[in-house]
Design a protein that fits this description.
Blueprint: E1 4-11, E2 19-28, E3 31-39, H1 49-55, H2 59-62, H3 68-73, E4 84-86, H4 89-102, E5 112-114, H5 115-122, H6 131-137, H7 148-166
Parallel strand pairs: 1-4, 4-5
Antiparallel strand pairs: 1-2, 2-3
Helix pairs in contact: 5-7, 6-7
Length: 174
């Protein structure tokens, strides 16, 4: 099975650049070979009641955390030349692009795949295609939904399950 990274972001407010936590699970041969979780001082640096109610992260949690540029500098090398997968990838890819733009960083050509879109094709019978629903269908208990690391692990499990069910070695063959 191809090496890939499942990625998830949580944001502090309605701005996609306001990443406040990052979760990444790197998968190779159906095993987690690396995982990365970090809190991030968001940009712009404010939290809404709504987002805090969703994920529980507050300004107090991230006040001493690295900004996106510093956090991503330690992550980017691990993602070089491997596909990324996210559940609702337009959101996560949008966050990644917006943060790169906010910090005037060159945006690499990351190849994104979306387990939400794929689940609609592969599992049209599900009542919905939310992360926790698809994860449960794939045999994964997502206990801490909206925690970036937990969501990345769930997404990785979904992608690996879909690949096994389809009998394919690469995400692009789904």
């Amino acid at each position: 099975m191809e090496r890939f990274a499942a990625i998830d972001f949580e944001t502090a407010n309605g701005k996609r650049s306001s990443i406040c936590s990052i979760g990444i699970a790197i998968i190779e041969d159906n095993n987690v070979v690396d995982s990365i979780y970090t809190l991030v001082r968001p940009y712009p640096n404010f939290y809404t009641r709504f987002t805090t109610a969703v994920h529980g992260i507050t300004m107090q949690d991230t006040i001493g955390s690295p900004d996106f540029e510093e956090a991503w500098a330690g992550i980017a090398g691990k993602l070089r030349d491997i596909p990324l997968v996210a559940h609702n990838s337009p959101f996560d890819e949008g966050c990644l692009r917006a943060a790169h733009e906010a910090y005037d960083l060159a945006y690499p050509k990351y190849q994104f795949y979306c387990t939400c879109r794929l689940s609609r094709r592969m599992y049209p019978f599900l009542v919905n295609h939310q992360l926790q629903t698809v994860a449960a269908h794939c045999g994964y208990d997502l206990t801490y939904h909206h925690h970036a690391m937990a969501d990345a692990y769930a997404c990785a499990h979904i992608a690996a399950t879909m690949m096994r069910e389809k009998g394919v070695e690469r995400l692009c063959d789904l």
